[in-house]
Amino acid sequence: MKMKSGLLALAMSAAIATPFATAADKPVVGLITKTNTNPFFVKMREGAQEKADAMGVDLRTFSGKFDGDNQSQVQAIENLIASGAKGILIAPSDPVAIVPAIDRARKEGLLVIALDTPLSPADAADATFATDNYKAGVLIGQWAAKTLGDDAANAKIAMLDLNSSMITVDVARDQGFLEGFGIDVKDPNKIGDESDARIVGHDVTSGAEEGGRRAMENLLQKDPGINVVYTINEPAAAGAYEALKAAGRQDDVLIVSVDGGCPGVENVKDGVIGATSMQFPLRMASMGVEAVLEYAKTGTKPSATEGLDFVNTGVELITDAPQDGVKSTSSKDGLGMCWG
Q1: Planar angle of CA 308, 143, 338, nearest 5 degrees
Q2: What is the percent of the chain with per-residue pLDDT over 70, rounded to a whole number?
Q3: What pTM, to 2 d.p., does this model score?
Q4: pLDDT band at residue 279, thresholds of 50, 70 and 90?
Q5: Which residues of 218-255 are buried (b: 16+ CB within 10 A; e: fewer)?
Q6: I need a labelling partner for 30 at 20 to 30 A (CA). Which of 233, 267, 274, 320 fits?
Q7: Digit-coded pLDDT (tens) for 280-297
Q8: Calpha distance 64→56 (Å, rounded)
Q9: What is the rounded distance in angstroms from the CA atom of residue 121 to the CA atom of residue 92?
């Protein structure tokens, strides 16, 4: 009898630990990422799975075959609608083209949360959980300007962006950097309309190392005196560094970036990148799972962070050359928080 009581207590404890006792009771939540190979999305999936396991959620994961694969994401949404999912977390490959499929899901009663990249229009999703990409840009812009000091007035800046589509993440980081550096951004929703003579030019990288190298080579041909390089992400920064190294300029150019992946933080430690703004994909996804579960239980939808039109999942500047007035964390500490 004593053994039975112990087993009963264990069973009750397990039921309390997770709100759903059997697999049949578990609400289905879908996570759809752009790819399943990018370390950012790998970490996002880890965060979602960890939270799903802790809360008794049946997490079903999908991804595009490549970055930009909208059709695979549409098929994943249709699959989740058919399976009776309670909600979908999606990092959209095409924020515009995915909207009709999102509309169908919401009409069926699913909560849809965009992760990292807002839909276009943003209110096509019930909420967006994302890095404050504008702030991420502002932080590296402020750091670069403070690092240069009086020489910031005569800087020669290369802007290494993502692509020609001007998706919101790309625009926000680019324009945030310029604002942080002290440059008039004209239209904050548009890349490349600035008139400041310090900007040598913009080029695209596809967020890849090879693209960063090629874009840096192009801009060095335009002006070999470039001394500040903004990059959309850390792989592009690594490529830019290789191009600068080939030109013998690696030691007298500041490179700044955004991501917070472990290879990028290692590059801060090694002096390849001067500063990077870290984002938190694990936190982003785990918060999303919690939000869908809350919606399943109470019908309550997440509210945006005060003063923003999305739920801010945090950003932190990583550098080993801190500057007064710009809050930052060392690469040593950053390696304990990074992803990938």
Answers
A1: 70
A2: 93
A3: 0.84
A4: very high
A5: ebbeeeeebbbbbbbbbbbbbbbbbbbeeeebbeebbb
A6: 233
A7: 999 999 999 999 999 999
A8: 26
A9: 12
